[in-house]
Amino acid sequence: MKPIKVISSFTKALSVLAAVLVLNLPIMGQQETPPPPAAPRSAQFPKPVERTLKNGLRVIVVERGGVPLVSAQVLVKNGGEADPAGLAGLADMTAALLTKGTRIRTAPEIAETIEALGGALEASARWDASTATVNVQSSRIEKAMEILADVVRRPTFKEDEIERQRQQTLDELSVALRQPGSLARYVASRVVFGDEPYGHSLSGTPESLARIKRDDIVKMHAAYYRPDNAILVIGGVIKPDDAFKLAEKFFDDWQKPTTALPAPVAAAVKANASPQKSRVVVIDKPDAGQAAVVLTRTGINRSDRDYFRGLVANSVLGGGYSARLNQEIRIKRGLSYGAFSSLDIRREAGPFIAATQTKNESGAEVATILMNELGRLASGQISDAELTPRKAVLIGDFARDLETTNGLVDQVAGLALYGLNLNEINNFINNVQAVGASDVQQFAGARLDAKGANIVIVGDAKKFADDLRKQFPQVEVIPEAELDLNSAKLRRPSSQTKK
Amino acid sequence: MRRIRHVTLLLFACAVIHGSVLTPSAIAQTKVPRLDYKERKLANGMRVLSVEDHSSPTVAIQVWYHVGSKDDPEGRSGFAHLFEHIMFKSTKNMKSEMLDRLTEDVGGFNNAFTADDVTVYYEVVPSNYLETLLWAEAERLASLNVDDANFRSERDVVKEEFRQRVLAPPYGKLLYLVEQKSFTTHPYRRPGIGSIEDLEAASLENVKAFHSTFYRPDNATLVVVGDFDQKQLDAWVDKYFARIPKPDKPLPRVEIKEPERTAERRYNETGTNVPLPAVAITYLVPPKGSADAAAMRVAEAILSAGESSRLYRALVYEQQVAQSASASTDLREDSGLFILSAVLAGGKKPEEAERSLLAEVRKMQDSLVSAAELEKAKNQLVTNQFRERETNNGKALALGDAAVLLNDPNRANTDIEKLQAVTAADVQRVMKKYFPDGNRVVIHYGPEAAAPQRAGDAKGAQK
User: Fold this and answer.
1) Which of A162, A328, A427, B301 has the highest CB neighbour number within 10 Å of its CB?
2) A8: Cβ–Cβ under 8 A, 6 or more apart, which residues?
């Protein structure tokens, strides 16, 4: 037994080493370490084709093989950024109400018709866009398109449905506002964007929702839901000719208004503005079971030439369980269940956010770690062993998204929304692969400078505010009862403090 | 950790749409593509199924072990599930949870579930990581460290899972009771999660015996679907799996049959965290391979799929006796269950929901369902099936299920026709055949604080 024991402890040591490094080891007899990956395999995704109808509606079709499903999406090129002042949540509500009644069908009738087809219909708004999407088996697409056109073109916005939707949103908001994590994100938007269009909450606030009237909804629909401000994307198992014929049948007579298109809504905050004085905002919520800690600043927009460098940099920093933030905060120090980052890339520069939750006492420590890690991304080394899996996560998520018809349509619609080449889905993998370590460092230094980063913490301030001030003297503390998400000031005048 | 809900497939006979703009060829072309699989059996008994699909550079890898909670040893309920946890711990060449790193860190994901009849481990990774994951699956089949440390840590985790799934949620205990009360004899009567007592009584020797009895190549089916080269897959399978020896001992199978039910059984049960009372009614039905399975699934959809379904319309919308109501088929390798359930609306009593549920059963026994309902049910079942099969992992699930539970991978292709061929008469026939009064188990479930129901009250709910 002895010789075998000696060999096995040797190979065990080697396998531990190899398991950490994942290198190309020569195969010596029995394979004891995980074989390394082969070179990434490429795949050809389908190429979209398009036409524009006389009324200005851009129609894009992506045919693919596989199980016979079709998704059709109407994308209107405006979303939450178009909310008028004081009416945050209007775009979101307008989109949600599309499926709640048209001139020829009530809300229950719409639901029944879609169910009878075995299909799914949903509508919602986000930043820069509002969408209505239907997904059915291929042989049922005609009826499904009829309903899609009906809900987009002829919603009735009945008062009882508006009230139902308002109440539902208020209920959801009341839950979200109690959670330190969501609350921190609402505050972060105000800190980064102030009173500019990206600064308010997409779903609104209790105050703004109370103000929304039917007339506002009707006006928003009339202003933005028009064929020359919309894109129709049809994807799945359907021939382009059939898809274009269906588009013409149900959307050709969608009248283009004689009025001009609404002016584009630009967020004033530019991605490369000289760093504003960074803020450190604490919302004092004494009943918070944990502190939500957020690091945030402006990021980049979709047409930025550094787009892929941004994706990879974010993946290295906080794009998963083994990325840097989670390594430092959860794995090494046990300070959180999970710490991640995101780069929200929009028509104008969207926010970069690094977020986590930790016990109140650790709020200051975690904020410092987030800041340090953002800085280290620009200055420290990034080995291949680190970069490869972080790029693989981006590629893997993308490839899996494209397995489904809904995923394919969403990807193509996203490219169309921002005026990009529709064949970019076939360049994604190569573009990610092309990003190197020095690209990530340069991007981090130039575009995600820690000096321009703000900190938001929602938690029990007495447990961390003093420690926080030692690192960041500019701490502002706002008691939860005085918090006003309706303005960049973030603080109600004291006469209006909530009970 | 959930049971498999396998929806049988539909080989699509296309409907004619009047006044359609779709070209006739477009309608004719909407056929379900076959899962074109290759099959191999290694000398050590392991079965390998594979489907090439190059539309996305990903690959799904699944290993189906033909062991489930029905194989838990007597007095050791929860073993198959506990074992599923231990399979993620250390092996000879992998430290604990390394499989998560080998999948999540490369742009993939992984998970596993334990069902009544099978335990399935699955992952999806970018296709250039196929060899790595084949190695890892072979590694944990052949070289798992079934040691005291791994056993104890996972037993604690599973006990927490029991608390989280059964004790904590409002109706966790009801789901547990449905298993226990629906079977008198067959091991299905022991829920897969097990019991705290059995888990605490387990020893390392018990666990090792379970492992060596069931985790063996001749009890495993490897399913690979996605972007790979068949020759290369065959070579890697030979390299990593063929060397695993087949044990020289018998493979036990459950032979016990659940007897037919001859008379209704009724139970009044309580729990500690029950906001509203609930009712569950179960019927004993044939195995999932039965010729009547398709008609039962159609009946399930008519009763329960969506807000225009019979149970929703009657109990929730019109009568307002229930906050939610559902029907579900739980078809298994041996006998299965058809389960009707409802959570009561505020102020309503379980017997009221029971009456309404049974009235809906009676309607479907007395009259044919409408052509529109039949068409809708088939549309819903078919589209759900299509959505599952969009992804490589979904295709692999469909193939593995047919291979291991129906003993014929091609049923993933042929069961379609059966579903499409279901008629209104078939639905009525299965409702009459499998839903007589004597085939019922009825459970009323309420909060502990409520006054105990007398036997007479419960019986009064019957018509």
Assistant:
1) B301
2) none
